[in-house]
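// run 5 | inverse folding | seed 20
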């Protein structure tokens, strides 16, 4: 029997280089696209690593410009400055190297400079920004993260080389990995999810169950590479399905407190799953099974996420950012109520009270990590 499914669509990069050493394909991209003056939006932390040095070596015979003038959660002011710098050096192509902040900043610089060619090299294992048509940019005056959407934000070329991942701090590997886990789970549970989407999310959940802990706690290179791959495929899928209250709340929580996006997601995941459970019990049990959380001695996925947060050293970062008196719960909830992710949440959100309860429970956990 046919089941009624929502119509779903996806946009993809035109070309993808994948595998260890694929960073050397950057030269091919620059040559094939006839970029004479590439403008690299480069994560300052990556610039100091061997991977950053390798990129500079690859482009040593090209007149390249390196711009690092952005922070985690890039702002409208920063991307405006980036666009000015791009024009000043008369650059003719954009290459983003870094996590979601670098890639989203490059997307907005592209928008402000007539959409020159954009290529992306992700160096974290969790954002998937390299294949998303969305750029999250902070409006510092309104204290709000704005989701800019445009299919032209999807980089034409993506290079997925796990060599770039190996120098990350454990708490940040955990944060980006749990963000990816959340993307996959929210996509799987979404009211707008489809059979095609769930074929992929099921495989991703099995891969995450096997590789999440070794990537975080052992920095296992093979496991990190799997996370990079899952982050990429998950982000390809979910713009068509929407996410859930986890991301609806995580964006304003990050905007108001400065908490890292992946940490905000990790903190919100257990109480959000619990909130949704009565409306997606069967799918949630399937997620528990696919992740094989029983083998991790966890009662369920929420408990497993909670333990990873506690054991990965994320607690110190969360405690620093979320001092109780400085978390404006009502403002965060009001922004979350406007999120485009609410309609896809498995359980209908009846009003601000629902979100406030989830947020309060998440924030209450910060003391026990
Ligand atoms: Fe996310």
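// decoded
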């Amino acid at each position: 029997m046919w089941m009624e499914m929502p119509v779903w669509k996806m946009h993809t990069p035109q070309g993808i280089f994948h595998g260890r050493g694929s960073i050397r394909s950057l030269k091919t991209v620059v040559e094939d696209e006839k970029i004479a003056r590439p403008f690299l939006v480069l994560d300052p932390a990556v610039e100091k690593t061997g991977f950053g040095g390798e990129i500079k070596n690859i482009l040593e015979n090209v007149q390249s410009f390196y711009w690092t003038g952005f922070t985690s959660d890039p702002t409208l002011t920063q991307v405006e400055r980036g666009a000015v710098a791009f024009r000043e050096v008369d650059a003719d192509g954009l290459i983003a190297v870094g996590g979601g902040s670098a890639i989203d900043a490059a997307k907005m610089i592209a928008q402000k400079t007539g959409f020159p060619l954009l290529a992306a090299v992700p160096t974290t294992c969790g954002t998937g920004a390299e294949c998303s048509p969305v750029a999250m940019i902070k409006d510092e005056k309104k204290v709000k993260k704005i989701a800019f959407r445009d299919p032209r934000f999807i980089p034409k070329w993506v290079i997925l080389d796990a060599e770039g991942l190996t120098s990350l701090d454990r708490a940040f590997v955990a944060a980006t990995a749990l963000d990816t886990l959340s993307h996959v789970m929210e996509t799987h549970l979404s009211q707008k999810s489809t059979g095609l989407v769930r074929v992929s999310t099921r495989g991703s959940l099995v891969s995450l169950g096997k590789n999440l802990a070794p990537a975080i706690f052992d920095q296992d290179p093979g496991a990190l590479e799997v996370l990079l791959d899952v982050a990429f495929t998950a982000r390809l899928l979910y713009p068509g399905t929407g996410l859930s209250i986890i991301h609806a709340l995580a964006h304003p929580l990050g905007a108001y407190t400065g908490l890292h996006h992946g940490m905000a997601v990790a903190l919100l995941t257990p109480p959000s799953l619990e909130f949704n459970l009565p409306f997606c019990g069967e799918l949630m049990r399937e997620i528990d099974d696919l992740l094989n959380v029983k083998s991790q001695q966890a009662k369920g996925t929420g408990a497993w996420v909670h333990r990873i947060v506690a054991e990965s050293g994320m607690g110190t970062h969360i405690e620093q950012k979320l001092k109780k008196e400085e978390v404006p719960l009502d403002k965060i909830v009001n922004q979350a109520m406007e999120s485009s992710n609410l309609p896809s949440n498995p359980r209908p959100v009846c009003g601000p009270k629902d979100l406030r309860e989830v947020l309060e429970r998440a924030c209450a956990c910060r003391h026990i990590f």
